Amino acid sequence: MGGRMTMSGALPARMTMVTLGVADVARSTAFYEKLGWKKSSASNDSVTFFHMSGTKLGLFGRADLAKDADIENTETGFSGVTVAINFASEGEVDAAFDHAVSAGATPAKRPQKVFWGGYSGYFADPDGHLWELAHNPMAPLDENGNMRLPE
Fold first, then answer.
1. What are phi and psi of 31, to 5 degrees?
2. What is the pLDDT of residues 86-96, one digit of tens each?
3. Are strands 130-135 and 119-124 parallel, antiparallel or unpaired?
4. Which candidate, 38, 40, 54, places its Cα nearest to that of 142?
5. Reduced to 3 states, what is the DSSP secondary structure of residue 25?
6. pTM metric for this prediction
7. Residue 98 has pLDDT above 90, yes or no
8. Which residues contact 2 (CB under 8 A, 6 or more apart)?
9. Residue 124's beta-bridge partner residues?
10. Is residue 90 within 8 Å of residue 130, measured between CB atoms?
11. Measured between alpha carbons, how far is 33 from 41 in angstroms, rounded to an integer?
12. Which of these, 2, 15, 9, 20, lies nearest to 59 by C-alpha position?
């Protein structure tokens, strides 16, 4: 089926891009580049795109993103959304967390064993978007670093 709607009208079960509304596109771009992420040449002063395994990350002005979605741009505290990167081991989680903090991330929760049987921690980017760094022994990673879940 690729990227097309099915004849029944069902949406494809995938995520092609996550866009974060940010206060300052240049500042947030610099932060993610410090993490070692590669910016796309399609980026410009008002939007940045990063290549990720299986998807893309976009950074767009928060007010402009709210306007595009036709919703009010209000600060609400916790948005109820986190973005996660899974790793093959607890040691990789620790190393990634330390790297993010050294790049300017704000530690939200240091990596630790968690109630669901894995190991995870959280950091916030310059706009407070929460990223979870996790090792989930029940969902191993494939050769591309993507989670394998049972059907």
1. -60, -50
2. 999 999 999 99
3. antiparallel
4. 54
5. helix
6. 0.80
7. yes
8. none
9. 106, 130
10. no
11. 13
12. 20
